Structure formats: C-alpha cells, structure tokens
Amino acid sequence: MRYFSPSTKAFYGEEHGNNKPNDCVEVTQAEYDAVKSYDAIAKELSSDANGKPILVDKVDNRSYDKKRKTEYPSIGDQLDALFHAGVFPTDMAAQIQAIKDKYPKG
Fold first, then answer.
1. CA distances from 9 to 25, 36, 37, 55 (A)
2. Closest listed residue to residue 6, CA positions, set 59, 49, 61
C-alpha cells in the first residue's frame, strides 16, 4: 500500500509504519504511476481537494530582474557586439583593438 502526504508532497509506504504525516491519503498504483515520472523543471507535485497527488505547472517565483538576467547575453558578448558595431569612442576602440591584436583568438 502506498500513501501520499499533501503537506510534504512525498510518498510513503508500509515500511514507514506510524512514521507518516497525519495527512497521508492512500493512493492506488495507477494514481502513483500517473505522477511518479515527471519533468521537474516544468511540473511539481501537488494535491487535489481530496489530498491525492497531482502534477501542476511550476510557478516561476524569480523576480523580474532575475528572470531577465538569465535571458540576456553575457556582458562580455554585449560589449564585443558593440565593439564590432563600431559604437565605441575612437580611443576606447583603439585600446580594445590593441588587446585583440596582442592576444588573437585561436
């Protein structure tokens, strides 16, 4: 027999004896099979009104700036693109080019 606890979002078996949370509900093999393998990046275990396990979409709780930060190219890539686009002042472009010439790629 298998049990699910909505408070811990975990499964428990007979081997846990009385060491299961008080909110555990019995789940069938089919209910367990429906949620045992899931994409942990997009989904998370939750429970329905009866305490049975269900999968729900994960909520992205990162702040606005952290969400954007992960999407932007690195600062280095941004600066390199600006350099190649020719938007740096002449003296800064000359300093950068001198370093690029001194330490060429590859």
1. 11, 12, 14, 11
2. 49
Residues 49 and 56 sit within 8 Å (Cβ to Cβ): no
So where are the chain's domains?
Answer: 2-57, 64-102
Contact 6, 24 (CB under 8 A): no
Kindly tell me the burial class for residue 4, based on how many C-beta atoms sit within 10 Å of its own C-beta (0-12, 13-18, 19 or more). buried
pTM > 0.70: yes or no: no
Spatial CA neighbour of 87 closest among 75, 78, 98 = 78
Query: What whole-number distance in Å separates Cα of residue 15 and Cα of residue 37?
Result: 22
What are the b/e assignments for 74-95, b being 16+ CB within 10 Å? eeeeeeeeeeeeeebeeeeeee
- Distance, CA of 61 to CA of 72 (rounded, Å): 18
Mind listing the pLDDT tens digit for each residue in 21-60? Answer: 999 999 999 999 989 887 777 888 999 999 999 999 887 7
Nearest to 34 by CA among 11, 60, 17, 13: 11
